[in-house]
């Protein structure tokens, strides 16, 4: 049997009919309900990671089959709504021995991992996708599909709470006003930090202000280096642009922490002297804890749904991608009808 899928071809998204994924033992077949278009997906179309399959890594779906498990285990999963962690480890592929990173518990850094919709693993811009059961998390009944589709990026925002003792940072700056930046600001606020989000789009800043986050309007160019005078012990760079790093370095106070969230295709100019002179701690941050993200959604402490700009049906994925690239647009979703 075949399914509708969208694949990257020549930096464009093209519809294709592909076989429904065959399952390895311990893997689940998931029918996509909603998928989110992320900035990483747009960077993939620009050449990020040289990916040529089906993109999409933010999703909520329904399990329709599980291979190689007991009838009781299968019954536990089939028909349930799930979100899924995107890194697939060497153990899930049956490789033995497992790599040193997996032995150390660093499964998101598995030396032989694939990454859903990003590295050598077809993603969620399709009717169906496949993931190991160990990657799946049940979506509580009180969390709508529109909220659940944000679990993966919200977990990435929650990773900051696992990497830093946020109690040591009573105030923080988040640079960027896109989807991830706003989720980060909401998570830090929910954790008790006084957050200021810096962005260049007044309409986007209005969204995060409704969530109780303070904002500052900037120009998003080199002039900000002279215009912005504030300093913070914690600065999160989430602009999605190489130009954001210079301002982030300037705003981080001596012996402060600069946390990097941006991923983009290509290289950006970097001067390292501010890091050395101010003795800044630089922390890279990627995927995060799904359980914390789900708990925030369930509690109502974070509501990402105001970030949704528009929902398209899966067959219009090319139009959805075009919409997602327009100025001022936030989260665009794909619905599997």
How would you explain this protein's 3D organization?
The chain has 337 residues and is an alpha/beta fold. The chain contains twelve helices and 17 strands. The chain has helices spanning 39-45, 71-77, 100-103, 145-148, 151-163, 179-190, 202-209, 224-227, 244-251, 273-277, 290-299, 317-324, and strands spanning 2-9, 12-19, 27-37, 58-66, 81-84, 87-88, 114-115, 128-132, 136-138, 171-175, 194-199, 214-217, 232-237, 252-260, 281-284, 308-313, 331-335. Strands 3, 4, 5, 8, 9, 16 and 17 form a seven-stranded mixed beta sheet that branches. Helix 10 links the parallel strand 14 and strand 15. The protein is globular and about 60 Å long. The two termini are 18 Å apart. The model has no long low-confidence stretch (mean pLDDT 95).
Short recap of the structure:
27% of the residues lie in helices and 29% in strands. By secondary structure, the protein is α/β, with parallel strands linked by helices.
**What structural category arises from helix and sheet content?**
alpha/beta
Q: State which percent range the strand residues make up.
A: 25-35%
Tally of DSSP helical segments: 12
Largest sheet: 7 strands, mixed
């Amino acid at each position: 049997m075949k399914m509708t899928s969208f694949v990257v071809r020549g930096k464009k998204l093209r519809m294709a009919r592909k076989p429904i994924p065959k399952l390895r033992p311990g893997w689940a077949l998931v029918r996509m309900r909603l998928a989110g278009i992320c900035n990483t997906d747009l960077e993939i179309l620009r050449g990020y990671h040289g990916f040529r399959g089906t993109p999409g890594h933010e999703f909520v779906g329904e399990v329709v089959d599980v291979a190689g498990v007991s009838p009781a285990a299968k019954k536990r999963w089939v028909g349930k709504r799930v979100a899924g962690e995107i890194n697939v480890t060497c153990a899930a592929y049956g490789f033995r021995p497992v790599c040193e990173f997996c032995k150390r518990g660093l499964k998101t850094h598995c030396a032989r991992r694939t990454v859903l919709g990003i590295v050598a693993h077809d993603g969620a811009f399709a009717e169906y996708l496949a993931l190991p059961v160990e990657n799946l998390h049940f979506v509580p009944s009180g969390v709508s599909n529109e909220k659940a589709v944000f679990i993966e990026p919200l977990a990435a925002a929650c990773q900051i709470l696992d990497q830093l003792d946020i109690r040591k940072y009573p105030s923080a700056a988040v640079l960027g006003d896109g989807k991830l930046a706003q989720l980060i600001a909401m998570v830090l606020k929910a954790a008790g930090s006084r957050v200021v989000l810096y962005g260049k789009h007044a309409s986007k800043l209005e969204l995060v202000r409704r969530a109780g986050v303070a904002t500052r309007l900037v120009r998003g160019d080199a002039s900000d280096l002279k215009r912005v005078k504030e300093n913070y012990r914690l600065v999160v760079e989430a602009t999605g642009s190489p130009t954001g790093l210079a301002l982030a370095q300037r705003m981080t106070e001596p012996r402060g922490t600069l946390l990097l969230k941006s991923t983009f295709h290509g290289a950006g100019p970097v001067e390292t002297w501010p890091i050395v002179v101010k003795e800044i701690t630089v922390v890279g941050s990627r995927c995060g804890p799904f359980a914390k993200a789900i708990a925030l959604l369930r509690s109502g402490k974070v509501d990402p749904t105001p970030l949704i700009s528009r929902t398209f049906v899966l067959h219009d994925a090319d139009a959805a991608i075009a919409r997602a690239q327009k100025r001022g647009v936030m989260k665009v979703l794909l619905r599997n009808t």
